[in-house]
Amino acid sequence: MGGTQAEVCLATSNLREDIAFFTKRLGMRMDTIFPADDPSVAVFSGLGVRLRLEAGTDAPTGTLRIATDDPDSFDERSFTSPGGTRVDVCDLNPVLQMPETAHSFVVRRLADQAPWVIGRAGMHYRDLIPDRLGGSIIASHIRIPDGGPVPDVVHYHTVGFQLIFCYKGWVDLVYEDQGEPFRLEEGCCVIQPPEIRHRVLFASDNIEVIEIGVPAEHITTIDHDMTLPNGPANPDRRFQGQRFVHHRANEATWTPFRLAGFEGRDTGISDGTQGVAGVHVARRAVGPSTWSTHDSDILFTFVMEGSMRLEADQRDPVDLAPGDAFVIPPGLAVHYADPSSDLELLEVSLPGIFKTEDAQPA
User: Cβ contacts of residue 8 below 8 Å, gap of 6+?
Assistant: First the structure.
């Protein structure tokens, strides 16, 4: 046979019985075995892998992980071959697990020099919720210092909710069933419904975005077969109940916000996600600000412009500036005090509809 093939090499302490195990119990095919008089090596293929078992070697026995859409076809989820290879059976398409929110009051200040780390496709990431509320959410401040083509590929995320908000600069994107590539400009945002294929194409110098993902740990999968853009546009398509939303700041209408003394623009994301999440941009308006509480499960806010003092019941006040972020747990009385005239906030809530009430600190 020509060409090139790769083999995963594992040790075995009982090749004779492992031959029966891999061919009969796992249904793999034995391709070669040698030497004939006293075999010490056998090569098997199947289950998407080529496996070489070697007797009399110091190599580790290792683990064979089988991902299948029918795990019940195996009599056990974890077992070991006679020669020592551990076999773990798991779901090929596991159900997304949503951790229970571990509520906490979080303030993340840019001035405190939270570390930037290099992530996927060379992007710089800054974590805005270090404790991630028990794994229920990740909020990232992402930047690309040098503009130009982005070394990205067509991919998708297994998520419950995902937001991309363009904080500074612009970025060119393309999405499955959404037509030709488009430019996401400063102050605009999109949601990436679960498993929608997409790709980042080109970015301006010093582009910065805020990305929200639920849950915090989710899988990114490369789609090697899809080319974007694909086929005719189908903007009304639902991806696991959610519709793609592209909110354009220059088309938005400002209306009274949930907090006194502020006005906001609704991005339409609560409607697009059927209430899974809501996203608003709020800015200073007329009238005094007041103390309030909310009953949302998660309420995240990022300061885009201006300044304010965040006052929270039985906690020290914190002065906030652009780049700072905070999370207010349900039931905690807070006050957005001394807001500057240019204050502008990005607010993300899960679920999309919740109740705010006037309150006083204890």
Answer: 49, 50, 51, 52, 62
CA distances (Å), origin 309, targets 91, 103, 337: 48, 22, 5
Q: What is the mean pLDDT of each run of 10 residues along the chain (362 residues)?
A: 84 96 96 94 96 89 94 94 96 89 96 76 85 96 89 94 98 97 98 96 94 94 96 95 97 96 97 98 95 98 98 96 97 97 98 94 80
Residue 211 structure tokens: 């990305």
Q: Are strands 318-320 and 308-312 parallel, antiparallel or unpaired?
A: antiparallel
**End-to-end Cα separation, the chain, in angstroms:** 78
pTM, 2 dp = 0.89
**Both tokens assigned to 48:** 């998407």
345: closest CA among 309, 304, 306, 294?
304
DSSP classification of residue 61: -
User: Can you tell me the distance from the alpha carbon of 66 to that of 27, in angstroms, rounded to the nearest whole number?
Assistant: 12
Q: What is the DSSP letter of 18?
A: H
Alpha carbons 212 and 142: distance in angstroms, whole number:
11
The half-sphere exposure of 74 on its side-chain side, counting CA atoms within 13 A, is: 20
Nearest to 108 by CA among 126, 125, 124, 134: 126
Helix (H, G, I), strand (E, B) or coil at 257: coil
